[in-house]
Write a structure and sequence with these properties.
It is a single chain. The protein is mainly α and about 120 residues long. The protein is built from four helices and three strands; from the N terminus they run βααββαα. A three-stranded mixed beta sheet has the order 1-3-2. Strand 2 and strand 3 form a beta hairpin. Helix 2 crosses helix 4 and helix 3 crosses helix 4.
């Protein structure tokens, strides 16, 4: 078996359709890709991982890397995708993940501000 070498690329290259190749790829595979991404982000956060890496396509020689700091942005891209496909059930699932992991900081910040005002 031959070793394959992969280059690391930013998530935006394959998840934001800026060229015809990516647009066609997402048109054909976007549901599966974005579904796997939001589920894997949920798992990565739950397991306290600092990043998530995956191969978008078996013929691609690139590994897409999503850093923890970008998880919320990628979840927002997943939501945009599923809204465009009118799959609101997936949108709800993504919102639950965002609320579970990211709304805690917002609530704490608001509470501190409210306490200062009283």
């Amino acid at each position: 078996m031959r070793n394959r070498h992969y280059t690391q690329v930013d998530w935006r290259k394959y998840l934001i359709p800026k060229n015809d190749f990516v647009k066609r790829f997402l048109d054909e595979n976007g549901d599966a890709v974005f579904n796997q991404i939001y589920l894997n982000i949920d798992n990565a956060i739950n397991d306290n991982k600092t990043s998530l890496a995956f191969v978008v396509h078996t013929n691609a020689h690139s590994i897409v890397v999503i850093e923890k700091k970008d998880f919320i942005d990628v979840l927002n891209e997943c939501t945009k995708w599923f809204v465009s496909k009118e799959n609101y059930e997936k949108c709800l699932d993504i919102e639950k993940i965002k609320n579970k992991y990211f709304s805690k900081n917002v609530k704490k910040t608001k509470r501190k501000k409210e306490l200062k005002l009283i």
